[in-house]
Amino acid sequence: MSTPAPATTAGFSTSFERQKGPGGEEHMILNMGPSHPSTHGVLRILLELDGEVIVRAEPDVGYLHRGMEKIAEVYGYNKFVPYTDRFDYLAPIANNVAVVSAVEKCAGIEIPERARMLRLVCCELGRISAHLLGIGAFAMDIGALSVFLYSFQQRENIYNFMEALTGARFTVSWTRVGGCARDLPPGWVDGVKRFVKDFPQRIERDVEGLLTTNRIWVDRLKGVGVMPRDVAISYGLTGPSLRASGVEWDLRKEQPYLGYENFDFDIPVGEVGDAYDRYLVRIEEMKQSARILQQALDRIPEGPINVDDKKIVLPGKREVLTSMEQLIHQFMVVTEGPELGPAERYFGVENPKGELGFYVDADGTGRPRRMRVRGPSFMNIASFPYALKGSMLADVVAILGSFDFVMGECDR
Amino acid sequence: MTAENPSPESPAVAAIRSRWPDAVRDVAVNAGQFRVTIPREKLIEILTALRDDPVLKFDFLVDLTAIDLSPAVPRFRMVYVLRSMTRREELVLKCEVPEDDCRVPSAHELYRCVNAMERECYDMFGIHFTGHPDLRRILMPEMFTDFPLRKDFPMVGKMSDQEWAEWIVARAQRTEGDPA
Question: Treating both helix axes as pointing N-terminal to C-terminal, what angle do A188-203 and A113-142 enclose, rounded to 10 degrees?
Answer without folding.
Answer: 30
